[in-house]
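Section 5: illustrative case.
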């Protein structure tokens, strides 16, 4: 997909703030510091549209990014960050659950897992919750460039086995640093968003 336009739209905390233009939405979920912002920036060829932070737990809303006026990336708060209060975690959980279960425009959840480590309990619980509710998932393993090429397949298998990857779900290994997996991930996104090959690239 050739991205010719990308913009930050809103940090939403309730459904009343969600966009109303009915474009397909792709949600990004994962632990704090798994690399969601870096992945967005790499996919859209921008250095800092999605702000990266060395401070885990900074994203506390649903951040909407509109791509080519054709779809949205919806960046979720990172889960599993201990310094966020229990009250805040509960509020995040309610906001995310309401969105995931009720948002008609949601077409795919990209669950991001750090490829360097086995999935955490939070990663496994998140995947199981998504599958329990019948949501389409693409598991994206991040920071692939940090692992020697000869060990990447082994790390990927550990993650697939640990979460019990369903055969209908896509699995993409990704590096925001090197762009590895970018084309493959765009192909998955385009398929779930319902694009034809011509549709996503807007040249006007």
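Designed sequence:
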């Amino acid at each position: 997909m050739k991205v010719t336009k990308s913009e930050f739209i809103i940090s939403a905390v309730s459904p009343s703030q969600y966009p109303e233009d009915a474009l397909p939405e792709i949600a990004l979920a994962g632990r704090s510091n798994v690399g969601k912002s870096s992945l967005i920036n790499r996919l859209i060829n921008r250095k800092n549209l999605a702000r990266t932070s060395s401070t885990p737990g900074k994203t506390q809303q649903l951040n909407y990014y509109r791509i080519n006026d054709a779809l949205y990336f919806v960046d979720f708060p990172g889960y599993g960050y201990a310094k966020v209060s229990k009250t805040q975690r509960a509020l995040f959980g309610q906001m995310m659950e309401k969105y995931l279960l009720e948002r008609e425009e949601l077409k795919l959840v990209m669950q991001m897992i750090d490829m360097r480590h086995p999935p955490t309990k939070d990663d496994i619980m998140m995947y199981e919750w998504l599958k329990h509710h019948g949501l389409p998932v693409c598991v994206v393993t991040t920071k692939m460039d940090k692992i020697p090429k000869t060990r990447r397949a082994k790390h990927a298998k550990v993650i697939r086995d640990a979460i019990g990857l369903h055969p209908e779900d896509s699995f993409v290994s990704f590096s925001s640093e090197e762009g590895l997996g970018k084309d493959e991930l765009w192909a998955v996104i385009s398929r779930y968003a319902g694009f034809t090959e011509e549709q996503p690239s807007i040249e006007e």
